[in-house]
Amino acid sequence: MTIPIPAEDPRHVPNLAMIDPSAITENTRAMGTLLEEQTALMAVVKADGYGHGMLTAARAAIEGGATWLGVAHPASALALARADLDAQILTWLFEPHTARIVLPEVLASGVDVSVGSPEMLALVSEAARQADRRARVHLKIDTGMGRNGVLPWQIREMGATLREDDFLQATGAWTHLTSADDPSDPATDQQVELFDSACAAFADEVGPIPLQHIANSAATLTRPDLHRDLVRPGIALYGYPPVPTDVPLRPAMTLTSRIALVKEVPEGHSIGYGRMRTTTRPTRLGLVPIGYADGLHRAGSDRCDVLVRTASGDRRAPQVGRISMDQIVIDLGADSEARPGDEVFLFGDAGGDPGGPSASTADDWAAAAGTIPYEVLTSVSGRVTRKVLS
């Protein structure tokens, strides 16, 4: 006999990712102030809204002025369409097996679909016939990323196929910038030159292109000349601009846990796998039940601080030793008044005394692990409960 094992009750798990939709709304609105009236804003809510919850992020972004939503996978687009949101949806990443299953319903729901190869275009055409609905197609052009997208010399063939198929409608053309987070890199202008040339050839085949879009978060912030008909910010909407900016953006996720154990150790006491750290003085260590299985990057071990909320006030404490699967150790200091049950802020907005210490950011954890805040946010695992603030 099989005995079912119940899922973890989130009320009994100490780790919590608090999501503030108002931050996403305000960030979207702030990004919108950079745009001319004719330029629309697509909120990229792929990867479950960068770990914030896709529907939560979508609704918050729409409240902030987004009129488009972007997701990688058609199944995500279908979930958005079923939520009856007041926004047009674009999806761009599919392979033959899932395309044949889900694309007909996606197209029937009015979702726009990107294609990046003749084979992908054929899949969309087949799905449109099954749905008995003309597909709105955005042609993805590879201008140097080397991922999804047709190469410039394939443009006319793709355009001719689109023009001759009554179930296909050329709605847009787009590309993805490789280096927009480095405004000094000439690659961006080189890509734009290729894109414009490809769009001219595409328009020769299909007529005027209603939507041209290039700008991601970085280009939206730094290159108003690339805003065109539509911009596609992602990470900036969640409070982490990829370039320096004066646009007011604030993080939408705060990751917290609680101290499980506090103990005093002498000088010379080793901490963690591989004895990565050894104490240089008598101190008090705190054990926090969160680790790399919850999304903390093991590569960032021993390089970042947390904020501990004690009865006597907030105190920063370094994470010490190797990050384990389910736990980390923090050095509270010999005189710390921290106790088991005290709240620990890994990153985000801790609130508290405006003049007091602040929590680390996803940028800090990314720097510690040698990665980017995108990965930090999307790595917060499913076993960390999300709490959406009202």
From TrEMBL:
UniProt binding sites for substrate: R147, M325
Residue span, Alanine racemase C-terminal domain: 252-389
UniProt xrefs under InterPro entries: Ala_racemase, Ala_racemase/Decarboxylase_C, Ala_racemase_C, Ala_racemase_N, Ala_racemase_pyridoxalP-BS, PLP-binding_barrel
E.C. number: 5.1.1.1
Alphabetical keyword list: Isomerase, Pyridoxal phosphate
GO cellular component, one term: cytosol
Stored Gene3D superfamilies: Alanine racemase (3.20.20.10), Lyase, Ornithine Decarboxylase, Chain A, domain 1 (2.40.37.10)
Catalytic activities: L-alanine = D-alanine
Cofactor names: pyridoxal 5'-phosphate
Pfam families on file: Ala_racemase_C, Ala_racemase_N
Broad class of enzyme this protein falls into: isomerase
UniProt GO BP: D-alanine biosynthetic process; peptidoglycan biosynthetic process
Gene Ontology MF term list: alanine racemase activity; pyridoxal phosphate binding
Entry keyword annotation includes Isomerase: yes
Top-rank taxon, per record: Bacteria
Active-site residues from the entry: K46, Y273
Pathway given in the UniProt record: Amino-acid biosynthesis; D-alanine biosynthesis; D-alanine from L-alanine: step 1/1
Role according to the record: Catalyzes the interconversion of L-alanine and D-alanine. May also act on other amino acids.
Entry-linked NCBIfam families: alr
HAMAP family assigned to the protein according to its UniProt record, in alphabetical order: Ala_racemase
Family classification: Belongs to the alanine racemase family.
Protein name, entry field: Alanine racemase
Organism expressing this protein natively: Brachybacterium faecium (strain ATCC 43885 / DSM 4810 / JCM 11609 / LMG 19847 / NBRC 14762 / NCIMB 9860 / 6-10)
